[in-house]
Amino acid sequence: MGCIDVSGMAGGQRFMKERVLFIVNVDWFFLSHRLPIALEAKQRGYEVHVATVLTDRLSVLHGHGFVVHPLVFDRSSTGLWPTMHTCWQMFQVLRQVRPDLVHLVTIKPVLLGGIAARLVGVPSMVAAVSGLGFVFVEREGIKAWLRRMFVVGMYRVAMGHPNLKVIFQNSDDLAKLVNQADIADSKVELIPGSGVDLGEYRATPLPSGMPVVMLAARLLADKGVYEFVQAARLLRQSVEGRYREVRFVLVGTPDPGIHGSLSNDELKAWVAEGIVEYFGHSHDMPRTLSIAHIVVLPSYYREGLPKVLIEAAACGRAVVTTDFPGCRDAIVPNETGLLIPVRDAEALAQAIRRLLDDSGLCSTMGQAGRTLAECRFDVRQVVERHLKIYAELLAKKR
Question: Of 39, 206, 329, 393, which residue has the fewest beta carbons closer than 10 angstroms?
Fold first, then answer.
């Protein structure tokens, strides 16, 4: 590892920067969910590397001063050869960089990067389990069971590192994986989500005009988009007629690299039908959320802890989400939002109706959400806890 000259140090003293390598499935997810941690690590003197699938964010990554290592793999592929090839790519990057600590984020990097890191002999490893994904959603049948058992076996291998910390975002994922993958309690940390910048996401009054009910997410079936559209239909067709002027808005884009992505044709058909408005990708989520009265996420994707729900809370918006791991951890039921069963469009419609009919409750829940965000989801707390974990693991390897 090369030495770095530091001007102004007596006698031309030199020191070696410790290297942190993030391995993440795609560049935009790294920027939206892990950037504050990486920036603070760089600020504290670490040399930060990022290995990821690139879309159009390479210049942004370079602009932050990170060393970038492109990966090429299909995030939805589960075949043996593509999986082995992805693991080999991660192995090569790890062998080239020789990091002092590797931070693995999302399922494939945790599983394949964890195995590769053990083969290379990386001294310290952080595995961020940001949701267990569709494999752990309860599905019947021998094929689903075999797939789960195979993935659990991979977790056991990947997380057998002697100097490891596994970060979970909700207690359900923690309990399930710690038990099935036999992870020692001393290697486990619970950090609720990626945090939210409370200065950027500010609480604003509910807007005037027609109510806006917003779903902001990647447009996947498992995010509850079909249930949202059906709930909009039910409310628009209700005999009262007073919900016909409510605006139901989708924010986000399909993600063809993921199982269950919606198609552009479906979106166009819903817009043409007049059921929903489609905003597409938002480059300014604080402003986008400020026009909403209610934010919904009827997900059954096995979320870690959905970032949009804590952003909505920080903006002072009541939320409706599912009684499902990760989603329910982002709210205080009946105080900051409402919980509904999964895959239940009628229950979603009833919850939205309740908030539309009671603007005082909507406002009160939004205020409580802001308080919750300040207490539990401040990004500064999340960053500090990660950097503390880095320091503890690196101290052990020295």
Answer: 39
